[in-house]
């Protein structure tokens, strides 16, 4: 307990108070733990995506990239080397196994993850785009960009 003393009272009512510090410290620690846990959740729940521009390093012509063109009819996985694979989309459901196999083939050929440009058509359902991005992240492709999204 902490005590606040105001000095002598000379016959008046005593105004000294004791402040319980333990509940204040408990509340402070609870708030701190809450903020630490939610900060980790926010970081784990984030999905990295980039827009073109402002990036230093080799130009797009010098780097190997994967280009995924997504439409309601299907998904085309192409690389800047010229190879191409098609993945079917039936009633807004992506064939995740076929996409994972196509991505694994590109990952093995290159020896690591390459940047991915995702080009969804305007009429593609957002759930299909998110499912494609989830599959890309699960296959180890973390650098996902949306060219033209910057305006």
What's the short story on this structure?
This protein is an alpha/beta fold.
Total count of helical runs of at least 4 residues: 3
Main sheet: strands, sense, barrel: 6 strands, mixed
The count of DSSP E runs of length 2 or more, i.e. the number of strands, is 8
Oligomer: single chain
Low-confidence stretches: none
Question: Could you outline the blueprint of secondary structure elements for this entry?
Answer:
Layout: E1 2-4, E2 17-19, H1 21-44, E3 66-70, E4 74-79, E5 84-90, E6 93-94, H2 96-110, E7 116-120, H3 126-138, E8 144-145
Parallel strand pairs: 3-7, 7-8
Antiparallel strand pairs: 1-2, 3-4, 4-5, 5-6
Question: Can you tell me about this structure?
Answer:
- The protein has a six-stranded mixed β-sheet.
- It has helices at 21-44, 96-110, 126-138, and strands at residues 2-4, 17-19, 66-70, 74-79, 84-90, 93-94, 116-120, 144-145.
- The model has no long low-confidence stretch (mean pLDDT 77).
- The chain is rod-shaped and about 95 Å long.
- It has 151 residues and is of the alpha/beta class.
- The protein has a domain at 66-145: 2-Layer Sandwich (Nucleotidyltransferase, domain 5), CATH 3.30.420.270.
- The termini are far apart.
- Strand 4 (74-79) and strand 5 (84-90) form a beta hairpin.
- The longest helix is centred in the N-terminal third of the chain and has 24 residues, at 21-44.
- Helices cover 34% and strands 22% of the residues.
């Amino acid at each position: 307990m902490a005590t606040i003393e105001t000095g002598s009272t000379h016959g008046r009512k005593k105004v000294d108070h004791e402040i319980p510090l333990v509940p204040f410290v408990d509340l402070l620690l609870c708030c701190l733990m809450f903020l630490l846990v939610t900060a980790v959740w926010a970081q784990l729940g984030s999905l990295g995506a980039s827009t073109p521009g402002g990036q230093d390093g080799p130009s797009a012509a010098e780097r190997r990239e994967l280009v995924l063109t997504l439409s309601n009819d299907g998904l085309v996985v192409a690389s800047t080397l010229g190879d191409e694979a098609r993945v079917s989309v039936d009633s807004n459901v992506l064939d995740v196994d076929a996409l994972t196999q196509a991505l694994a083939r590109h990952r093995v050929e290159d020896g690591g993850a390459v940047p991915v440009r995702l080009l969804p058509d305007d009429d593609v359902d957002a759930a299909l785009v998110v499912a494609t991005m989830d599959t890309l992240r699960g296959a180890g492709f973390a650098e996902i960009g949306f060219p033209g999204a910057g305006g």
